[in-house]
Design a protein that fits this description.
By secondary structure, the protein is of the alpha+beta class. The protein contains twelve helices and 14 strands. The strands form four sheets. The chain has a five-stranded antiparallel sheet with strand order 2-1-3-10-7, with no helix packed on it.
């Protein structure tokens, strides 16, 4: 490399917990010999994590910068010859050359894969001072700068941390993210399930694919934002945090992470302790919301309890009125068809047969009405819920209230109401069909 300045190899690494680590080589590069530098992947420049990196690890970017602040360029046109990337583990040594070949250059970083490894010694002896003899091939082979075979030549453009914060680097291209969009946003963007598109997160444009739709996200209650998107945390972090950042000559870059985390658990306290153990001490869990606590909070408010009681009373009264209405309707409808009953009785139908005929007809009519009414009621409920204020303090509820009911309870309620409706129809039909035969015949003669 030229000129002789302190340059250090650095890496941006992700561990299995999604934590982002900035790793550095154990020593600087030199310009008077080939030197092996080692990056210890068991620790890093990060000091705010409570534990060491958890394997397996993945390298997302590699770069070079001055290890000693000079007040000038962080890098300034140096050239590096590098070769033989290996990983040393307890089970042996593994070559990483193929993995490094997959990295792409970014922000002016230059890389030539098929440079001659003896380029350094040839450049060193390119100009021999007067009076000195030109070294022979065997003498050159004894030089610390000599190496046989091929290497990679990296060229670093001039850069300062303040003038050019974009770091020249070797970068692993993250995989496209897979996202869920709410129906309104997908409609506005003209994106359908399976379509590829570009998405912007934290001022970074990334490629992705919409794999599904979402209806509501209870914790997204900020009306100032439009549209909702859900994606995998690891994939998003690879895009947002995988880029290299100047580390020796400036503060370590802040890790971008979501402001909330959803977890399904039965032990909230133990889960919060586990999360805090994985987060930096300077960024602990601020607030914890749970469905159970939200339900208990709502249930403890007199206004909410009163509204819920009114709704339950209204539902019970509605069921009673519906049963009375259905029974009255069937009695009236069947009573007006006494002549038809008489004809059926005259043709040989018994009371049970006549009752069954009219009962099946009325059950079909009432059942169809019940299905239409249920669908209409659900649509009306979904349309009116946004306007339902659960008490004078509803605007302060965080997160917003989610109305839910267990499916077994709902199905049991519908079954009971359905059986009561069928029983009322059968009772009303049998009551009318139980008329004496003589009265039926007189009705037919009219």
């Amino acid at each position: 490399r030229q000129p002789s300045v302190d340059l250090r190899l650095l890496m941006r690494v992700f561990d299995s917990r999604g934590q982002v680590w900035t790793m550095q080589a154990d020593r600087d590069l030199v310009d008077d010999a080939w030197r092996t530098v080692t990056v210890d992947l068991t620790t890093g420049l990060n000091t705010n994590y409570p534990s060491d990196p958890a394997p397996p690890l993945s390298i997302h970017s590699v770069w070079v910068e001055r290890s000693t602040p000079t007040g000038g360029n962080v890098i300034g046109g140096e050239s590096l010859l590098v070769r033989n990337f290996t990983a040393v583990t307890d089970s042996g040594t593994v070559s990483l050359d193929a993995a490094f070949d997959e990295l792409t250059t970014l922000n002016g970083f230059g890389r030539f894969l098929d440079a001659d490894a003896d380029e350094a010694v040839r450049a060193y002896y390119a100009a021999v001072p007067e009076g000195e003899s030109i070294p022979t091939s065997s003498e050159r082979a004894q030089s610390p700068l000599y190496a046989d075979g091929l290497a990679q030549r990296w060229t670093l453009p001039g850069a300062r941390t303040r003038v050019n914060p974009a770091v020249p680097q070797l970068r692993r291209n993250p995989d496209p993210i897979k996202v869920l969009l709410d129906v309104e946003l997908a409609s506005q963007a003209g994106i359908n399930v399976g379509d590829s598109a570009t998405f912007t997160v934290a001022d970074l444009i990334m490629e992705g694919e919409m794999v599904g739709l979402i209806d509501q996200i209870p914790s997204m209650i900020d009306t100032r934002t439009t549209g909702k998107m859900v994606t995998d945390l690891d994939a998003l972090s690879a895009h947002v945090n995988g880029l290299a950042s100047w580390s020796f000559n400036s503060s370590l870059s802040r890790i971008e992470r979501p402001g909330e985390l959803w977890i399904k658990t039965d032990d909230i306290d133990a889960t919060v302790r586990l999360i805090n153990a994985q987060l930096p001490e300077t960024d602990p869990v601020d607030q914890v919301f749970s469905i159970r606590a939200s339900e208990a909070d709502v249930s403890s408010r007199p206004v909410q309890v009163g509204l819920v009681a009114i709704l339950f009373v209204g539902a019970a009264v509605s069921v009673v009125l519906a049963l009375a209405g259905v029974t009255s309707y069937v009695l009236l409808a069947v009573s007006r068809r006494t002549r038809e009953m008489g004809v059926l009785r005259a043709l040989g139908f018994g009371r049970a047969g006549v009752a069954a005929t009219f009962a099946i007809e009325q059950v079909a009519v009432v059942g169809l009405g019940a299905v239409i009414g249920t669908i209409g009621g659900i649509a009306l409920m979904r349309g009116m819920l946004p306007f339902l204020q659960l008490g004078e303090t509803a605007a302060e509820i965080r997160p917003s209230v989610r109305l839910a009911i267990d499916w077994p309870i709902l199905l049991g309620y519908l079954m009971v109401v359905g059986l009561l409706l069928i029983a009322s129809v059968i009772w009303a039909t049998r009551r009318v069909s139980a008329t004496r035969m003589s009265e039926v015949l007189r009705e037919v003669e009219r």
